[in-house]
Specification:
By secondary structure, this protein is mainly α. The protein has a single domain, classed as Up-down Bundle (Growth Hormone, Chain: A). The protein is about 80% helix and about 0% strand. The termini are far apart.
């Protein structure tokens, strides 16, 4: 594939991610589902969280399967599962367990298997713009609700609640399967003509490619997992309750709140590109620390905001920071462990992420329910982020486990002596 065509691959990747990222519009369904079937806030929130949990659990499956079947097969299968899961959810009237199974388990499996594909493919096509391209690769996922939230709100009003799931499921499936058909890895060892890594890039990258097992043996893998998981726990708590927050704290109407949910999806997508771009200009560590610092300041003051315009701005910025972690972390993983197995290495980071994605929002919803407001829940998030500021300061590329590690044991003493 010519170098110029790699940008066409990026466009297809964004389209695939937008179809998957439509899941972010879930908060639009919360109040209609509660009114029509009498389900509680917690019960409805679990639908979203189950899908997110399975997203995290199946991302590694997608990453490992790609090594055997290729990205196209994985992406198209993922589109079928996601679209099919949402479509089947249209038959869940008065059957919450069916909603959990279809939208949550089946749809979430499609989300996880599909999410990893554009990230893995594009990071190999763009070694010269690793941060920016991972941001672009996941920007579509963050911006998915830009179209799906208003569309879901319009469909609920005009065709009814359950048929909305059917229409959206068909649309998501068609878009994801079509875009997934374009996913293809570059030839082995491919690089843009005339490109060589800069001194800054070299200093921030590991000196070799790691296998999944070797990456798990480093503390850096766990540190990167914690960075993304904590950011997800806090940011996803806001995303899952965005529509009710606008209505309860900002006195927005249901229609206005749905529109604002769609607009903040732009922040989710823009944050993935913006913070990834910042990480290319500075370092991944600097970008993460700055992003965390912004979130700490906003979380400590968020509960005092009652003006809808100010609440929207604060939420938009928080969602930008939330999205930023998804743009930076895949590039972080490729920098620290090499691009060869980044699909499985970053994919497995989504497993601890899955537990954080469930625990944070469900605790946030629970604290809101028992306290009648968001103050205590927001204080918890602010304290967690404050403590986590230490992580991007401490983390650095794994070094020193180089050629000596790969030689037979009988030769290691001499090599290590030279290295010392």
């Amino acid at each position: 594939m010519p170098v110029s065509n790699r940008w066409l691959m990026a466009v297809a990747g964004v389209c695939l991610q937008m179809a998957l990222g439509a899941a972010y519009a879930w908060s639009v369904f919360r109040i209609p589902l509660s009114k029509e079937f009498g389900w509680s806030i917690t019960e409805i929130t679990w639908v979203f969280l189950i899908s997110w949990f399975f997203l995290g659990c199946t991302t590694t499956v997608g990453g490992l399967w790609m090594k055997r079947a290729g990205p196209k097969v994985v992406a198209m299968t993922a589109g079928l599962l996601w679209g099919g899961g949402v479509f089947l959810a249209s038959f869940s009237a008065h059957r919450l367990w069916w909603m959990y199974l279809t939208y949550g388990v089946i749809g979430g499996t499609g989300l996880g298997m599909g999410y990893i594909v554009p990230i893995t493919v594009l990071v190999k096509w763009f070694p010269d713009r690793r941060g920016l391209i991972t941001g672009i690769a996941v920007a579509g996922f963050g911006a998915g609700a830009l179209f799906s939230a208003p569309a879901a709100g319009w469909l609920i009003q005009h065709v009814g609640l359950m048929p909305t799931f059917a229409y959206l499921g068909v649309a998501y499936g068609i878009i994801a399967i079509t875009a997934g058909a374009f996913m293809k890895n570059p030839p082995e060892g491919w690089a843009p003509d005339g490109w060589t890594p800069s001194a800054t890039q070299i200093s921030q990258r590991s000196d070799r490619d790691y296998t999944l097992g070797q990456a798990l043996g480093t503390w850096q893998w766990w540190a990167l997992s914690a960075l993304m998981s904590i950011n997800t726990m806090t940011g996803l708590s806001i995303v899952t309750q965005a529509s009710p927050i606008f209505q309860e704290m900002g006195s927005a109407t249901v229609k206005t709140a749905a529109r604002l949910v769609g607009i903040i999806a732009l922040g989710n997508g823009a944050g993935r590109i913006f913070w990834s771009w910042v990480s290319d200009l500075t370092t991944r560590r600097t970008a993460y620390f700055t992003m965390y610092l912004v979130e700490v300041a906003l979380f400590w003051t968020y509960h005092t905001i009652h003006s809808l315009p100010l609440l929207f701005v604060a939420t938009f910025i928080l969602v930008m920071c939330y999205g930023g972690a998804y743009g930076i972390t895949p590039a972080f993983a490729a920098d620290y462990f090499g691009p060869r197995d980044v699909g499985s290495i970053f994919g497995l980071m989504m497993l601890p992420w899955a537990f954080a994605a469930v625990f944070g929002p469900i605790l946030f919803a629970y604290l809101r329910q028992i306290n009648g407001n968001y103050s205590q829940a927001l204080s918890f998030l602010a304290g967690l982020m404050t403590v986590a500021l230490i992580l991007p300061i401490l983390v650095h590329p794994p070094r020193g486990r180089n050629r000596a590690e790969e030689l037979p044991t009988k030769n290691r003493f001499d090599v290590e002596e030279v290295i010392d």
